[in-house]
Amino acid sequence: MMSLARNLGVFVAYAERRYAKSASQQLLELFRREQREHPELKGRALYGAVIARRLGSNSILGAADIVRRAEESFAVWPRDRKLTFRDVVHYQIFDEYMRQSELRVGTRTDFGVAVARIIPDGL
């Protein structure tokens, strides 16, 4: 029985990493597209535009809420620093993933590590 639970855990972790990688790649492509189409957008405005494209019109939270929550989660605490696109992606995909099922109470994967493999640090 324990082996089955461990095997399921490995499968869940693999699926989470795959989801984080795919979502990060999609958000990076949206970021680049938004930069090409609206070169005047920078920082929070650019991040909000990217998230708005990702969310479309059927979202519980708006893009501005996602950006604000990402800032509160990563840029204000534990130390005050500038918000990055990586922070926003990390928050967005974790929130998205958790909302896909009411049964989820957490993840086995550190989404931040998965995001950092795709999203460059300086964005």
Q: How would you describe what is shown here?
A:
The longest helix is centred in the first third of the chain and has 36 residues, at 2-37. It is globular, with a radius of gyration of 15 Å. It has one domain (2-116). The protein has helices spanning 2-37, 43-55, 63-76, 85-99, 111-116. It is mainly α. The model has no long low-confidence stretch (mean pLDDT 86). Helix 2 (43-55) crosses helix 3. Helix content is 68%, strand content 0%.
Number of strands: 0
Indicate the structural class.
mainly alpha
Order of helices and strands: HHHHH
As residue ranges, the low-confidence spans are: none
**Rg computed from alpha carbons, rounded to a whole number of angstroms:** 15 Å
Helix content: 55-70%
| Biggest pleated sheet | none
> What does the overall shape look like?
globular
Q: End-to-end distance, in Å?
A: 45 Å
Number of domains: 1
Quaternary state of the chains: single chain
Key phrases:
123 residues, single chain
Short note summarizing the structure:
The model has no long low-confidence stretch (mean pLDDT 86).
Draw up the topology in text.
Blueprint lengths: L1 H36 L5 H13 L7 H14 L8 H15 L11 H6 L7
Helix pairs in contact: 1-2, 1-4, 2-3, 3-4
